[in-house]
Structures are given as C-alpha cells and as structure tokens.
Amino acid sequence: MKNLWNRSDAAACNSVLDLRVYSSRLLGASPSLVLHGGGNTSVKAEFTNVFGESVPALYVKGSGWDLRTIKAAGFPPVDLEYLRRLGALADLSDTDMMRQLRLALLDPAGPTPSVEAILHALIPCKYVDHTHADAVVTLSNTPNGTELLQDLFGDKVLILPYTMPGFVLARQVADATLNVDWGCLKGIVLLHHGIFTFHEEAEQSYSNMINLVSMAERRLATRSASLRQISHGGVLGQEELALAKLRKAASQLFGTAVLVQWDKSDTAREFAALENADELIQRGPLTPDHSIHTKPFGAVFRGNLSSDLAQFAELYRVYFDSHCLSEHQILDLVPRFGVWLGKGMIYLAANAKRLQIVRDISTHTLSAIQKAEAFGGWDALPRQDLFAVEYWELEQAKLKSHHLKPEMEGMVALVTGAASGIGLATVESLAARGAAVVALDVAFTHSEGSSELPSAAMCLQVDVTDEAVLQDAIYSVVQQFGGIDLLVSNAGSFPRSSLLADIDESTWQKSLDLNLTAHLRLLRCCEPYLSEGHKPAVVFVGSKNVLAPGPGAGAYSVAKSGMTQMMRIAALELGKKGIRCNAVHPNAVYDTAIWTKEVLASRAAHYGVSVEDYKSANVLGTELCSQDVAEVICALLSDRFAKTTGAQVPVDGGNERVI
Prior knowledge:
By secondary structure, the protein is α/β, with parallel strands linked by helices. The chain contains 25 helices and 18 strands. The protein is elongated and about 100 Å long.
C-alpha cells in the first residue's frame, strides 16, 4: 500500500478532530481498505458542554457516513466514561446498546455512533483506525489463516477469532487485552472481519495500518493462482435477450423492478472460467459485513438463466429455514451476484447505486478468492455466522421502518436527443423519479458510457440515423442494466424553412431520416427488450405541426406526422405485448437550442409584440419550458396513464389552431 500522509496537509489541520477527518479520508480513499461505508475511526478529545465544563469524549464515526468523504459532523461526540462503563457490563443486547449509544451522545443532534463505539472507547489510545483490509481478511479466509497471520505479524499484532460486531466484540477485545502492553502492540486482527491500529499520534496509527496491510499484500504476492484462458465469444443479441428475460424473472421474484448487469471484464471472465467457479461463488463473502449488501453467497448461472434464478431462490429459502428463529423475517429471494459460467459475472440490485455497490464488493471478493486459493483454498465463515450478520437484529429493525420508494426505482429509461432542451429535462425528471436513465445524443463526446450528465446513469454518443451504432448502443444498455422499460424517442431537428416548391431533396431526406426513420429504427432495436420490460411504455416527441402545420415547414411537418402515425400503428401492434405507445406535441418551448435571444427578438418584432408577450401567446397566456414537456412525458410513462395507449397530448398552453 502507498502511504498517503502529507505533513503539510496534516499541519494545516486546526484541531485533533480536523486531523481525525484528514487521516480517515486517507483510509477511505483506498477501496482495498474501506469499501462503501465499511470501517470506522475515532479520536479521544475533550468536549466543552453548555456549562463550560470539559468532558472526556470519544469522537467516533457516525452511522451512515463514509470514510472516503467524511466531515467533522460525521464524528459525533460521545461520553467516554459512559462508554467504558457500558463496556464493563456482562451483557447488553444490540438494540439496548444502540439506545445507550444515543443516550451517551453529548450532542443529541449528532448521528448515531458506530456499533463499534464501545470497542473504540476500550482501546486506551487517542487515535483508533479500523478497516476491512482485503489483504488481511483474504489471508484469514484460508484454512491456515490464523497461523499465516501469526507468522507474518508476530507478537506486534493480536489475532482474535471471529465474533459478531458490537458489544460482543468489544467484550472479546477487552478480555483478550487485560494483560497486554499497548505500547508494544501495533494492531489487532479480527479473523474474517478486519484490522484495528491505534496510537497517540494520528500519523503513526495511520502508518501502522498501511505497514501491516502492506505486509499482508506482500505475503499474498508470493503465490499467484494460474490464469485461465478466457473466451470473448458469444452471439451478440442472444445473450442480451437472455439477460432481459432474467431481469423480468428477477423483478417478478423481487416484487418490483430490479437492475441486472453483465460484467464482461477480464477479471470476471477469468473467474467464470475456473473449473470450480460454481462452488467457489457459494462459499461465502470476503467479510460478513458484505452479506448485508450482497447476501452471503452467489447464484450459479449456467444456461437457462431464469431457471437458474429459481434454483437460487430455493437454495436461499433452505438456507433461511436452516438458521432462522421465530423473530426472523425472510428477505427477498433474489441473488445480488452470480457467476455466469464461461461468460463473466451477473449483478442484481434495486437501483443503480446499489448495483455499483454490489459490483465493487464482488470485484474485490473475486480477487480475494483467487489469491486465497493459492494459499490452500477460500475458507469463509460458516453460514450460521453469515446468517447472524445478514439477519442481525439491527438490520431486521430496518425492515420495519417504511421508506417511500421512488416511483420508477429499478426501471431503465432510454432518452434520445438528451443533451439539451426537452431531452435533457426528461432525463432529469426521470432520474428524480428513481429511474436508471440512459442518455443518447450525437453531441456527447464519449461513446463508452461515461456520464456527461450528473442525473444520467449512462451517456452514449450515438447518431440515431446510424442503425449499426444504435444497435450497439442498445446492447450496451442491456449489458449495463438488463433491459429497457421506458423509451423517450425525442431526437430530431428543425430544418431551414422552405416552401415545398423550393425545398431541395437533400433537406427533405435528412428530415425524414432523423425525424421519422430514426424513430422506427430505435423502436425496432428496443422492442425485444421492451417486450421483457417492467411496465413498458414509449413516448414519441412530436410537434404542434402535426396537428396544425404551417407554410415553410413541410420537411419537418411531414416527417413528424409520419412519426405520429407510426406511433399509432405501434400502439396497435405492441399493445398485445403490454407495451404502451403515446405521443406529446410541444409548441413554443423557448428554452431549447434553436430559440436564441436573437431569434426570439426577431420573431417578436415580426408580430409587433414584446418578447414576453410573444412567449406567452397561447390560450392560457402562459410561458412554456422544457421541464413542462418533461413532466407530461413522465406522466404518460407512469402508472397514472397505465390504461392509455395511442394518445396524442399537446403541450402548448392551448393553441387555437390545434383546438
């Protein structure tokens, strides 16, 4: 590991809490130490109460904070003596412990202290660092893990057997260190869990962590698993359709839409090529904390992915029945990760954020498994211990709290012409409703999916008139999220005005290609996945010109009219598959690229009115913007219009010619 400590940065810290934030972020910057909220840190310092009295306090990481981005507010002050008295109790349930931790807060507005707060209080050093270091846990997850770590660290590190986090762990460490000389001890390893380091100085506690983990990394590097030949074959389109069918089955099993991702990276394919990959994937996680995110074991996907999903569900139910008590409430039966033998890994989650967490954890686990195999085999905790963490009373309590789920969470929405105007507003509106939004536009600068829009889950540079490029983009979407549920066919352009007698065929053809034929190609590419989608719906963005054309806009009006007629036919043809198709007809939406200040001023002058009056020249006397159109699009895609198809909805403030 690289020691990231910078003495000038550390010297700029104005307090011990600032220094605690600084060194915590250094730890959080390394995913091989801290992954998605894992690990915790603390510092012992004085707290001044309202009476001006100084109270010994433990500033410990609060629940919900991530070490990678933590701030001072993420370290609530807790009464240190109160914590030490709690640590002296013979017994304390986790629920009671969390209640007592809240009672011990010196700032009642602070976040709930970490479940490891009592343990941090019992360690008699100013700074305490705790991570779930991959290298250390990997060595412990081998048949001779204890001996390997003892041989590696000697008497500088205390090696303790696994026990549940919280009060039980605090008591274990307290009992094991009764006669320990803390001045000679550099760390404590909790088998299958992680490592603690500590010191009176923040830099030394951090350096101890880096040095000990580096020793474990060097030990792992002395052996390496033999690489397998990996295949990059497969029939394009067939595998993507299989993913879409898997996603449909998983969504039905989950009770609502889920996302499915196919990881085709070399790491994933290499693991999938292992002869015993199907057995390894079910042995257990890198650390039991991961089971809360990923479940304790993965699925095995062989051929019929939906059938393999059903087999996992049955296996998980048997696992639950084998370990549950009367108070346990079974979680859903959907796996969070699985190996697709010979092809890579598959991840499943309720939304894009959770999907990334599952992928990150799985990637670290795959690497650890292969390294551990070179040291005698991957030997995770018994399932009974994993069950205890997955069904921890603190986690079960969360099931009883009701959180309102965004209406489109788990759904995949694709929007074309997404870089500006109505397309951009639609991307933002769908994302705000919880959808994983894929934005397509020729104006984007990348074709590999980097997100150029903060609200989009994926951005792709695509010319929708190029069918081959468009089809590849759709495959990428399905590989990334498992399918398509919502389609907004918006890409288009307004050609230069010209009377029919004067229009050149090139302008005419370009308008037909982009404003009509491209919409057919898009629908044709997406239809197989919409057919397997969750509440599938399509909205075509038309124009007022469909209903009330004007002179000089023939190339545009004819193409948009053809697109609208195509929508009506699609509604008839796809209705039997449950796919709804509707259209919106915007008009006078002036916050789009074509309406510059100069153009607006020119048009207003032409009619002899002010710009403000020109912009609100409709029946309702209101001004329209892209967001107004986006809201109607989202409504048509939602359950509120679940029984509507083939409709055309004007979004124009009321146009007399249309009415």
